[in-house]
Write a structure and sequence with these properties.
With about 400 residues, this protein is of the alpha/beta class. It contains 12 helices and 15 strands. The longest helix is centred in the first third of the chain and has 26 residues.
Length: about 400
Protein backbone atom coordinates (compact mmCIF):
# COMPACT_ATOMS: atom_id res chain seq x y z
CA UNK A 1 0.00 0.00 0.00
CA UNK A 2 2.80 2.38 0.96
CA UNK A 3 4.63 1.52 -2.26
CA UNK A 4 1.55 2.34 -4.35
CA UNK A 5 1.11 5.69 -2.58
CA UNK A 6 4.79 6.50 -3.12
CA UNK A 7 4.63 5.42 -6.75
CA UNK A 8 1.56 7.60 -7.34
CA UNK A 9 3.32 10.57 -5.70
CA UNK A 10 6.40 10.11 -7.86
CA UNK A 11 4.27 9.99 -10.98
CA UNK A 12 2.48 13.16 -9.92
CA UNK A 13 5.69 15.06 -9.06
CA UNK A 14 6.64 16.09 -12.64
CA UNK A 15 3.17 17.54 -13.13
CA UNK A 16 3.42 19.41 -9.86
CA UNK A 17 6.85 20.75 -10.78
CA UNK A 18 5.57 21.77 -14.21
CA UNK A 19 2.63 23.51 -12.58
CA UNK A 20 4.92 25.39 -10.24
CA UNK A 21 7.16 26.39 -13.14
CA UNK A 22 4.18 27.64 -15.11
CA UNK A 23 2.92 29.54 -12.09
CA UNK A 24 6.29 31.23 -11.65
CA UNK A 25 6.42 32.02 -15.34
CA UNK A 26 3.01 33.61 -15.10
CA UNK A 27 4.35 35.97 -12.45
CA UNK A 28 7.05 37.24 -14.83
CA UNK A 29 6.19 39.34 -17.85
CA UNK A 30 7.80 41.37 -20.56
CA UNK A 31 7.71 45.11 -19.91
CA UNK A 32 7.40 46.84 -23.27
CA UNK A 33 9.04 50.26 -23.48
CA UNK A 34 8.63 52.33 -26.65
CA UNK A 35 11.38 54.44 -28.18
CA UNK A 36 10.62 57.13 -30.74
CA UNK A 37 13.97 58.25 -32.16
CA UNK A 38 15.27 59.86 -35.33
CA UNK A 39 17.17 56.90 -36.78
CA UNK A 40 17.30 58.37 -40.29
CA UNK A 41 17.42 61.92 -41.62
CA UNK A 42 19.43 64.91 -40.39
CA UNK A 43 18.60 64.31 -36.71
CA UNK A 44 19.96 60.74 -36.85
CA UNK A 45 23.27 62.14 -35.58
CA UNK A 46 21.45 62.35 -32.25
CA UNK A 47 18.89 59.56 -32.64
CA UNK A 48 21.28 56.69 -33.35
CA UNK A 49 23.36 57.52 -30.28
CA UNK A 50 20.15 57.72 -28.26
CA UNK A 51 19.06 54.26 -29.43
CA UNK A 52 22.51 52.88 -28.59
CA UNK A 53 22.33 54.29 -25.07
CA UNK A 54 18.91 52.73 -24.49
CA UNK A 55 20.01 49.39 -25.96
CA UNK A 56 23.09 49.23 -23.73
CA UNK A 57 21.14 50.03 -20.57
CA UNK A 58 18.32 47.61 -21.43
CA UNK A 59 20.81 44.79 -21.95
CA UNK A 60 22.50 45.61 -18.63
CA UNK A 61 19.24 45.57 -16.67
CA UNK A 62 18.11 42.30 -18.28
CA UNK A 63 21.50 40.66 -17.69
CA UNK A 64 20.93 41.24 -13.97
CA UNK A 65 17.52 39.59 -14.03
CA UNK A 66 15.37 42.44 -15.28
CA UNK A 67 13.12 44.39 -12.93
CA UNK A 68 11.42 42.30 -10.23
CA UNK A 69 11.98 39.30 -12.49
CA UNK A 70 10.41 40.98 -15.51
CA UNK A 71 12.35 41.43 -18.75
CA UNK A 72 12.53 44.87 -20.35
CA UNK A 73 11.72 44.88 -24.06
CA UNK A 74 12.71 48.01 -25.98
CA UNK A 75 10.59 48.70 -29.08
CA UNK A 76 12.36 51.32 -31.23
CA UNK A 77 10.64 53.19 -34.06
CA UNK A 78 12.11 55.73 -36.49
CA UNK A 79 10.39 59.12 -36.29
CA UNK A 80 12.93 60.63 -38.73
CA UNK A 81 13.15 63.90 -36.81
CA UNK A 82 9.80 64.95 -38.31
CA UNK A 83 6.73 66.13 -36.38
CA UNK A 84 4.29 64.10 -38.50
CA UNK A 85 6.31 60.91 -38.12
CA UNK A 86 6.66 61.47 -34.37
CA UNK A 87 2.87 61.64 -34.10
CA UNK A 88 2.50 58.42 -36.12
CA UNK A 89 5.14 56.61 -34.08
CA UNK A 90 3.62 57.65 -30.76
CA UNK A 91 0.20 56.41 -31.91
CA UNK A 92 1.66 53.08 -33.05
CA UNK A 93 3.62 52.49 -29.84
CA UNK A 94 0.79 53.52 -27.51
CA UNK A 95 -2.29 52.07 -29.21
CA UNK A 96 -0.95 49.22 -31.36
CA UNK A 97 2.13 47.97 -29.50
CA UNK A 98 0.57 48.86 -26.13
CA UNK A 99 3.86 49.88 -24.54
CA UNK A 100 4.00 50.86 -20.88
CA UNK A 101 5.59 54.23 -21.75
CA UNK A 102 7.43 56.01 -24.58
CA UNK A 103 10.95 57.49 -24.65
CA UNK A 104 11.55 60.37 -27.06
CA UNK A 105 11.12 61.87 -29.56
CA UNK A 106 14.56 63.25 -30.48
CA UNK A 107 13.86 66.90 -31.26
CA UNK A 108 11.87 69.44 -29.25
CA UNK A 109 9.87 70.30 -32.39
CA UNK A 110 8.66 66.71 -32.53
CA UNK A 111 7.98 66.59 -28.79
CA UNK A 112 5.60 69.56 -29.02
CA UNK A 113 3.69 67.62 -31.70
CA UNK A 114 3.69 64.13 -30.15
CA UNK A 115 3.68 64.59 -26.36
CA UNK A 116 0.04 65.78 -26.28
CA UNK A 117 -0.95 62.36 -27.66
CA UNK A 118 0.79 60.64 -24.76
CA UNK A 119 -0.78 62.96 -22.21
CA UNK A 120 -4.25 62.42 -23.67
CA UNK A 121 -3.70 58.65 -23.49
CA UNK A 122 -2.23 58.95 -19.98
CA UNK A 123 1.08 57.42 -21.01
CA UNK A 124 4.47 58.68 -19.84
CA UNK A 125 6.47 60.45 -22.56
CA UNK A 126 10.08 60.64 -21.36
CA UNK A 127 12.35 63.00 -23.33
CA UNK A 128 16.09 62.52 -23.20
CA UNK A 129 17.09 65.24 -25.68
CA UNK A 130 14.27 67.82 -25.50
CA UNK A 131 15.56 71.00 -23.85
CA UNK A 132 13.21 73.69 -25.21
CA UNK A 133 11.18 75.73 -22.77
CA UNK A 134 7.58 74.55 -22.35
CA UNK A 135 8.07 70.84 -23.05
CA UNK A 136 6.97 69.67 -19.60
CA UNK A 137 4.14 72.21 -19.48
CA UNK A 138 2.21 69.98 -21.89
CA UNK A 139 0.94 67.70 -19.15
CA UNK A 140 1.64 65.53 -16.10
CA UNK A 141 2.78 62.54 -18.16
CA UNK A 142 5.71 64.43 -19.75
CA UNK A 143 9.10 63.88 -18.11
CA UNK A 144 12.63 64.65 -19.24
CA UNK A 145 16.15 64.10 -18.00
CA UNK A 146 17.59 66.47 -20.62
CA UNK A 147 18.68 69.62 -18.77
CA UNK A 148 16.87 72.73 -19.93
CA UNK A 149 18.75 75.35 -21.92
CA UNK A 150 17.46 77.83 -19.32
CA UNK A 151 19.63 76.02 -16.74
CA UNK A 152 22.69 75.49 -18.93
CA UNK A 153 23.14 78.61 -21.07
CA UNK A 154 23.54 81.22 -18.31
CA UNK A 155 26.36 79.12 -16.83
CA UNK A 156 27.95 78.73 -20.28
CA UNK A 157 27.81 82.45 -21.12
CA UNK A 158 29.28 83.43 -17.76
CA UNK A 159 32.16 80.99 -18.23
CA UNK A 160 32.79 82.20 -21.81
CA UNK A 161 32.84 85.87 -20.79
CA UNK A 162 35.42 85.13 -18.13
CA UNK A 163 37.54 82.79 -20.26
CA UNK A 164 37.72 85.00 -23.37
CA UNK A 165 37.31 88.44 -21.69
CA UNK A 166 34.24 89.05 -23.85
CA UNK A 167 32.80 92.59 -24.02
CA UNK A 168 30.29 92.21 -26.89
CA UNK A 169 28.81 89.37 -28.95
CA UNK A 170 26.84 88.69 -32.12
CA UNK A 171 24.00 86.16 -32.24
CA UNK A 172 22.88 83.73 -34.95
CA UNK A 173 20.06 81.21 -34.56
CA UNK A 174 17.56 79.02 -36.39
CA UNK A 175 14.21 80.78 -36.25
CA UNK A 176 11.93 77.89 -37.29
CA UNK A 177 12.93 75.14 -34.85
CA UNK A 178 11.60 74.88 -31.29
CA UNK A 179 15.00 73.99 -29.83
CA UNK A 180 17.04 76.70 -31.56
CA UNK A 181 14.34 79.36 -31.06
CA UNK A 182 14.02 78.51 -27.37
CA UNK A 183 17.80 78.59 -27.05
CA UNK A 184 17.87 82.02 -28.66
CA UNK A 185 15.27 83.30 -26.21
CA UNK A 186 17.38 82.08 -23.28
CA UNK A 187 20.58 83.52 -24.78
CA UNK A 188 18.87 86.87 -25.33
CA UNK A 189 17.64 87.06 -21.73
CA UNK A 190 20.99 85.85 -20.39
CA UNK A 191 22.98 88.45 -22.34
CA UNK A 192 20.67 91.18 -21.05
CA UNK A 193 20.98 89.94 -17.46
CA UNK A 194 24.77 89.72 -17.71
CA UNK A 195 24.89 93.13 -19.47
CA UNK A 196 26.70 91.85 -22.58
CA UNK A 197 25.95 94.10 -25.61
CA UNK A 198 24.82 92.42 -28.84
CA UNK A 199 26.28 93.89 -32.05
CA UNK A 200 23.81 92.15 -34.37
CA UNK A 201 21.28 89.31 -34.35
CA UNK A 202 20.92 87.14 -37.45
CA UNK A 203 18.54 84.27 -38.19
CA UNK A 204 18.35 81.43 -40.69
CA UNK A 205 15.82 78.76 -41.67
CA UNK A 206 16.06 74.99 -41.42
CA UNK A 207 17.84 73.57 -44.45
CA UNK A 208 19.93 76.67 -45.17
CA UNK A 209 23.53 75.93 -46.10
CA UNK A 210 24.81 79.37 -47.14
CA UNK A 211 25.23 81.78 -44.22
CA UNK A 212 27.58 84.31 -45.83
CA UNK A 213 25.03 87.16 -45.86
CA UNK A 214 24.40 86.83 -42.13
CA UNK A 215 28.07 86.34 -41.32
CA UNK A 216 29.12 89.38 -43.35
CA UNK A 217 26.82 91.52 -41.19
CA UNK A 218 28.22 89.88 -38.07
CA UNK A 219 31.78 90.56 -39.20
CA UNK A 220 31.00 94.26 -39.63
CA UNK A 221 30.12 94.52 -35.95
CA UNK A 222 33.46 93.01 -34.88
CA UNK A 223 32.11 91.04 -31.89
CA UNK A 224 34.40 89.29 -29.40
CA UNK A 225 32.40 86.04 -29.76
CA UNK A 226 29.49 84.59 -31.70
CA UNK A 227 26.53 83.08 -29.87
CA UNK A 228 25.06 80.24 -31.93
CA UNK A 229 21.72 78.65 -31.03
CA UNK A 230 21.98 75.93 -33.67
CA UNK A 231 21.97 72.21 -34.27
CA UNK A 232 25.34 70.58 -34.90
CA UNK A 233 25.34 70.44 -38.72
CA UNK A 234 24.28 74.06 -39.22
CA UNK A 235 26.71 75.19 -36.51
CA UNK A 236 29.59 73.37 -38.21
CA UNK A 237 28.88 75.02 -41.55
CA UNK A 238 28.50 78.43 -39.91
CA UNK A 239 31.87 77.97 -38.20
CA UNK A 240 33.57 76.97 -41.46
CA UNK A 241 32.10 79.91 -43.37
CA UNK A 242 33.07 82.27 -40.55
CA UNK A 243 36.69 81.13 -40.79
CA UNK A 244 36.57 81.51 -44.60
CA UNK A 245 35.69 85.18 -44.03
CA UNK A 246 38.82 85.57 -41.90
CA UNK A 247 36.90 85.69 -38.60
CA UNK A 248 38.54 84.01 -35.61
CA UNK A 249 35.99 84.65 -32.87
CA UNK A 250 35.10 81.80 -30.52
CA UNK A 251 31.57 80.36 -30.59
CA UNK A 252 29.19 79.90 -27.66
CA UNK A 253 26.45 77.30 -28.07
CA UNK A 254 24.00 74.97 -26.39
CA UNK A 255 23.97 71.19 -26.23
CA UNK A 256 22.82 70.92 -29.85
CA UNK A 257 26.51 71.39 -30.68
CA UNK A 258 27.49 68.39 -28.55
CA UNK A 259 27.74 65.89 -31.39
CA UNK A 260 30.66 64.30 -33.27
CA UNK A 261 28.99 65.72 -36.40
CA UNK A 262 30.30 69.16 -35.44
CA UNK A 263 33.89 67.99 -35.78
CA UNK A 264 33.28 65.72 -38.77
CA UNK A 265 32.35 68.87 -40.72
CA UNK A 266 34.22 71.72 -39.00
CA UNK A 267 37.26 69.74 -37.86
CA UNK A 268 39.76 71.98 -36.01
CA UNK A 269 37.90 75.11 -37.14
CA UNK A 270 35.57 74.34 -34.26
CA UNK A 271 38.31 74.87 -31.67
CA UNK A 272 37.45 77.36 -28.90
CA UNK A 273 33.73 76.65 -29.18
CA UNK A 274 32.16 76.63 -25.72
CA UNK A 275 29.17 74.42 -24.98
CA UNK A 276 27.24 73.62 -21.81
CA UNK A 277 26.02 70.12 -21.04
CA UNK A 278 25.25 67.86 -18.09
CA UNK A 279 27.76 65.30 -19.44
CA UNK A 280 31.44 65.13 -20.32
CA UNK A 281 33.62 62.20 -21.36
CA UNK A 282 36.24 63.67 -19.02
CA UNK A 283 33.98 63.34 -15.99
CA UNK A 284 35.76 60.37 -14.41
CA UNK A 285 33.16 59.19 -11.93
CA UNK A 286 32.90 55.38 -11.58
CA UNK A 287 29.45 55.36 -13.20
CA UNK A 288 30.59 57.38 -16.22
CA UNK A 289 33.81 55.40 -16.67
CA UNK A 290 31.81 52.16 -16.63
CA UNK A 291 29.29 53.56 -19.13
CA UNK A 292 31.99 54.77 -21.55
CA UNK A 293 33.86 51.45 -21.41
CA UNK A 294 30.68 49.41 -21.93
CA UNK A 295 29.54 51.64 -24.81
CA UNK A 296 32.90 51.36 -26.60
CA UNK A 297 32.93 47.59 -26.14
CA UNK A 298 29.41 47.19 -27.55
CA UNK A 299 29.39 49.74 -30.37
CA UNK A 300 33.08 50.29 -31.19
CA UNK A 301 32.83 54.08 -30.89
CA UNK A 302 32.84 56.81 -28.28
CA UNK A 303 29.52 57.78 -26.69
CA UNK A 304 28.18 61.32 -26.63
CA UNK A 305 25.89 63.29 -24.35
CA UNK A 306 22.76 61.95 -26.02
CA UNK A 307 23.80 58.33 -25.57
CA UNK A 308 24.61 59.06 -21.91
CA UNK A 309 21.24 60.71 -21.25
CA UNK A 310 19.37 57.83 -22.91
CA UNK A 311 21.39 55.31 -20.88
CA UNK A 312 20.56 57.11 -17.65
CA UNK A 313 16.88 57.49 -18.60
CA UNK A 314 16.46 53.74 -18.94
CA UNK A 315 18.02 53.24 -15.51
CA UNK A 316 15.71 55.93 -14.06
CA UNK A 317 12.66 54.05 -15.38
CA UNK A 318 14.07 50.72 -14.16
CA UNK A 319 14.45 52.19 -10.66
CA UNK A 320 10.87 53.50 -10.75
CA UNK A 321 9.56 50.11 -11.88
CA UNK A 322 11.10 48.45 -8.83
CA UNK A 323 8.43 50.26 -6.83
CA UNK A 324 5.57 49.45 -9.21
CA UNK A 325 3.48 46.32 -8.71
CA UNK A 326 2.41 45.52 -12.24
CA UNK A 327 -1.18 44.29 -12.45
CA UNK A 328 -1.49 43.58 -16.16
CA UNK A 329 -4.13 46.31 -16.38
CA UNK A 330 -2.32 48.65 -18.77
CA UNK A 331 -4.06 51.87 -17.74
CA UNK A 332 -3.34 51.25 -14.05
CA UNK A 333 0.27 50.22 -14.71
CA UNK A 334 0.92 53.30 -16.88
CA UNK A 335 -0.38 55.60 -14.14
CA UNK A 336 1.54 53.72 -11.45
CA UNK A 337 4.77 54.35 -13.36
CA UNK A 338 3.92 58.06 -13.64
CA UNK A 339 3.45 58.22 -9.88
CA UNK A 340 6.70 56.36 -9.15
CA UNK A 341 9.01 58.36 -11.44
CA UNK A 342 9.22 61.69 -9.54
CA UNK A 343 10.78 60.01 -6.51
CA UNK A 344 13.68 58.43 -8.40
CA UNK A 345 17.23 59.62 -7.75
CA UNK A 346 20.27 58.02 -9.38
CA UNK A 347 23.99 58.61 -9.74
CA UNK A 348 24.46 57.82 -13.42
CA UNK A 349 26.72 58.50 -16.36
CA UNK A 350 25.61 62.15 -16.37
CA UNK A 351 26.12 62.49 -12.61
CA UNK A 352 23.66 62.88 -9.77
CA UNK A 353 20.12 63.13 -11.12
CA UNK A 354 16.69 63.90 -9.67
CA UNK A 355 13.40 65.28 -10.99
CA UNK A 356 11.85 68.61 -10.11
CA UNK A 357 8.31 69.75 -10.94
CA UNK A 358 8.04 71.90 -14.06
CA UNK A 359 7.16 75.57 -13.51
CA UNK A 360 3.43 75.87 -12.74
CA UNK A 361 0.96 76.83 -15.45
CA UNK A 362 -2.39 78.28 -14.40
CA UNK A 363 -5.19 75.79 -14.86
CA UNK A 364 -2.91 72.95 -16.02
CA UNK A 365 -1.11 69.97 -14.58
CA UNK A 366 2.55 69.90 -15.56
CA UNK A 367 5.29 67.30 -15.80
CA UNK A 368 8.82 67.02 -14.44
CA UNK A 369 12.19 68.51 -15.46
CA UNK A 370 15.76 67.46 -14.72
CA UNK A 371 17.51 68.74 -11.61
CA UNK A 372 21.16 68.53 -12.59
CA UNK A 373 24.35 70.60 -12.69
CA UNK A 374 25.72 71.99 -15.97
CA UNK A 375 29.26 71.30 -17.15
CA UNK A 376 31.02 73.75 -19.51
CA UNK A 377 33.13 72.21 -22.27
CA UNK A 378 35.51 73.74 -24.80
CA UNK A 379 36.48 72.31 -28.20
CA UNK A 380 40.16 71.47 -28.55
CA UNK A 381 41.71 69.33 -31.26
CA UNK A 382 38.40 68.14 -32.66
CA UNK A 383 36.69 67.19 -29.40
CA UNK A 384 35.07 68.76 -26.36
CA UNK A 385 37.08 68.82 -23.13
CA UNK A 386 36.28 70.30 -19.75
CA UNK A 387 36.84 74.04 -19.51
CA UNK A 388 39.39 74.69 -16.78
Amino acid sequence: MRFNVLNTALKTLPALLLGATLANAALAADIKLGLAAALTGPAAKYGVAIKNGFTLATDEVNAKGGVNGNKLVLIPEDEQGKKEEAINVFKKLIFQDKVLMVFGPTLSNSAFAADPIANAAKVVAFGTSNTADGITAMGPFTFRNSVMEADVLPVTVKAAVKHFSIKKVAVIYGNDDAFTKSGYDVFKATLEQQKIPVTTTEAYAKGDVDFKAQLTKIKAGNPDAIVCSCLAEEAANIILQTRALGMKQPFIGGNGLNSPKLFEIAKDAGDNTLMGSPWSAENLTPANKAFIAAYKAKFGSDPDQFAAQAYDALHVVAEALKNVKLTGALDKDRDALRQALPGVKIDGATGKFAFRPAPPVTGKQVGFDAQQEAIVNIAKGGKFVLLK
